[in-house]
């Protein structure tokens, strides 16, 4: 394991604004020259000179019309005039960094830009998003043409949407929003699901090799459409093997494993094994022993329930490519509670209050519990409930109601 490559920068985290993860550009004030949807295209922006359409040079990005002032006496836009586009993240989470890429925009890039973020649960309309409370995560900053600008973000909050603002107008090729997925525990209650999936919070944390493609592809949504959408290593010239380690969405029991080598024909690994990381001891043990793989094949294996795991490691022998790794299973009670506590600590105040109210607390009780955040563990959450005003019923019914409500939401 001497070749471990741990993520050293936010660019190695999951792109929450990836179309393949379910992101979408839901609104923009203008897109006359080039469509807003180009902002989240997976591939790098391209430029073909002297390729003109009815609105001018075709640009691979989002480009707005040139702004003008109010009239002949004021032909220039004001300092506040700007354009914007709103992106629904494919998975809600904590944003660690943003890339605003002006690739191929030279005489038509914005002078400055900023990025805001909001948490709006459900499936909000553009009007509802416009009325939301937005938090600035990247302050207004000067841009350069044909440049990928990287901005680190320091905000411990869960967001569902981001808004790119540009002054006064112009074009941006791509927007990347890297961070950590934070799933809503209510979406996973009672379900078996892919514990390794990006959309639920699974993430590749290390790999022996990522020469041809990223290990983040292993737990992406859907099936790989081409070989480049999987994880592939260079040809190994020693007697070791390649591997990827992942943190799971939460502590759980693995019930089935899928190893998909679709599109990998002459470069499929000969064999593979999958290990689980014991959630209590941190020790590794076999979930799937070394097993022969076939090229261009979805391999499915049932797994007898074993010790709860919070991580997994895919080993391939000796090298090659795998399109997808799926670990179907279910959260343990402790895993569900840990996921719920993290989510509850990171959502905005009003969202947290509403969630507790929906679970059965009064609004005053919900506000009191929310005010005690962040909770380090289950005990601190239980203490916040115990600290509520004394129940007014001698039979303990109110205490039982409160405990039931906090259990429904946080599992503690």
From TrEMBL:
Pathway(s) annotated for this protein in UniProt: Nitrogen metabolism; (S)-allantoin degradation; (S)-ureidoglycolate from allantoate (aminidohydrolase route): step 1/1
InterPro entries according to UniProt: Allantoicase, Allantoicase_dom, Galactose-bd-like_sf
First-tier enzyme category under EC: hydrolase
EC number: 3.5.3.4
Residues in Allantoicase domain copies: 22-181, 201-330
Highest taxon of the lineage: Bacteria
Keywords: Hydrolase, Purine metabolism
Family to which this protein belongs: Belongs to the allantoicase family.
Known catalytic reactions: allantoate + H2O = (S)-ureidoglycolate + urea
Molecular-function GO terms, alphabetical: allantoicase activity
Gene for this chain: alc
Official protein name in the record: Probable allantoicase
Source organism per UniProt: Streptacidiphilus cavernicola
